[in-house]
Amino acid sequence: MIRLLTFLTLLALMPLAAAAQQGAQVAFGGMQQDTRAPVEVTADALSVNQSDGTALYTGNVVIAQGQMRLAAPRVLVVYAKDVGRIKRLEATGGVTLVSGTEAAEAERADYDIEGGQVIMSGNVLLTQGPSALTAERMVVNLRDGTAQMSGRVRTVLQQADSPAPQGQP
């Protein structure tokens, strides 16, 4: 977790990738995500339910796939009918998603692995360098590296240092 916090701190030093307005599309992840890449999950505990094809990871859950990292206290993994293939992940309890140079936080994230889409909801905060965007919902398309934000979007853009106007310090 310390590595994740260090990484998130370093993100604040990177330049703004894109800005958004209400319902606007933003860049996310700087690169496209290979949704066919292996998924690695680490957690404090695991409970498997063979009857419904789910696995519940709890406690310091970290999921890695390619350049993407997702961290949450609780993640439910739903397996496809094909043995060993993950269909979707449902992360709850406060979620952090890091991809490329961006980081996002929300109360919940649902990752459709087959569809290559992450839906984050509940007090979404997207950090891109020194700037931040907030919304109630963000849909991330991992195939093309874009995101759609909706639900009272607020953008805080940090301007690059520029010379002060004449006559001012």
Automatic annotation (TrEMBL):
Keywords: Signal. GO terms for molecular function: glycolipid transfer activity. Residues 40-145 form the Organic solvent tolerance-like N-terminal domain. GO terms for biological process: lipopolysaccharide transport. It comes from the Bacteria. The keyword Kinase does not apply. Residues 1-19 form the signal peptide. One of its GO terms (cellular component) is outer membrane-bounded periplasmic space. InterPro entries: LPS_export_LptA, OstA-like_N. This is Lipopolysaccharide transport periplasmic protein LptA. It comes from Maliponia aquimaris. The lineage of its organism: Bacteria, Pseudomonadati, Pseudomonadota, Alphaproteobacteria, Rhodobacterales.
